[in-house]
TrEMBL record:
PROSITE patterns recorded: FAD_PCMH
Protein name, entry field: FAD-binding PCMH-type domain-containing protein
SUPFAM superfamilies assigned to the protein according to its UniProt record, in alphabetical order: FAD-binding/transporter-associated domain-like
GO molecular function, one term: oxidoreductase activity
UniProt region (Disordered), positions on chain: 1-24
Domain FAD-binding PCMH-type, chain residue ranges per copy: 83-264
Gene source species: Aegilops tauschii subsp. strangulata (Goatgrass)
Length: 289
């Protein structure tokens, strides 16, 4: 009687190897679909190199970029310096449509996450994406002032339409020098992006009087996780509007914001308290209680 043949048992290593091969196939399919979505050529070049870096089994899930250039290295770090995460691709969108195209392409697979990066001042890796896509919202920074517009309402109120990737420093210079106006609330450090601080809160020394920056927004243009570009406000799509403000980028990418403006003062007073020893400051605080 012939002996029954045994089916070879798959070891855990074999299973992981098959899974890695499947992931590589999915990644290549994503690249093909991205081309059909007419994504920027620079993004496709990055994604092609990411797929090439995933050719080995060890790197299949990490999607490590081979011979990373300066932009990719910068996107792997932030101001906090506590976390390092190398993206598979750095996307430099020129418009909200580019942001939407990138998000739609990434949504076709579970292998890619998307993170919006402004000026890189997150402290715990919030603007990073390990093996995913990083949207460089500072792309085209030279044309930011050209994209800023002054909008007037019927009641005489003035607003600034500004890109989400613009620095508050750029917004302030543009508004004051061209129109003698300024936002009511801004951060003490101005080299932060509009979309970045509105995604966090925007608290500063002026917040006790004017509220945080998230309380001084009239309208937002947001690209959602489905890649849809929507305009929202307290009256139009309010759920999306209030979810995005302070939402840490989990509900959409801010590509434009309408900020209320008021007459800029001729002079301002800024007080800063210096402390050379933390122990002295804490002793004074405790004694004040």
């Amino acid at each position: 009687t012939p002996r029954p043949t045994r089916r070879p048992q798959h070891s855990q290593a074999d299973t992981e190897r098959e899974r890695s091969a499947s992931d590589i196939t999915k990644q290549r399919a994503l690249l093909s679909s991205a081309r059909s979505a007419c994504l920027p050529k620079m993004m496709l070049a990055y994604m092609d190199r990411a797929a090439a870096g995933a050719a080995t089994e060890r790197d299949a899930l990490e999607l490590t970029v081979v011979a990373a250039d300066a932009a990719e290295c910068a996107a792997a770090r932030d101001f906090g310096g506590l976390v390092s995460a190398r993206p598979a691709a750095v996307v430099r969108p020129a418009s909200a449509d580019d942001v939407a195209s990138a998000i739609r392409a990434a949504a076709r697979t579970t292998l890619l996450t998307v993170a919006a990066r402004g000026n890189g001042h997150s402290v715990a890796g919030q603007a990073m994406s390990e093996g995913g896509l990083v949207l460089d919202m500072r792309a085209g920074a030279a044309s930011r002032r050209q994209q800023m517009k002054l909008v007037s309402s019927g009641g005489g109120a003035a607003f600034a339409d500004v890109p989400g990737g613009a620095l508050w420093e750029e917004v302030l210079h543009w508004a004051v020098s061209n129109h003698g106006l300024a936002p009511a609330s801004w951060t003490d450090y101005l080299r932060l992006t509009v979309g970045g601080t509105l995604s966090n809160g925007g608290v500063s020394g002026q917040s006790f009087r004017y509220g945080p920056q998230v309380s001084n927004v009239a309208e937002l243009e947001v690209v959602t996780g489905e890649g849809e570009c929507r305009v929202c406000s307290p009256s139009a799509h309010p759920d999306l509007f209030f979810a995005v403000l302070g939402g840490l980028g989990q509900f959409g990418v801010i590509t434009r914001a309408r900020i209320p403006l008021s007459p800029a003062p001729q002079t301002v007073k800024w007080a800063r308290a210096w402390c050379t020893r933390a122990s002295r400051s804490t002793r004074r605080t405790r004694s004040g209680w």
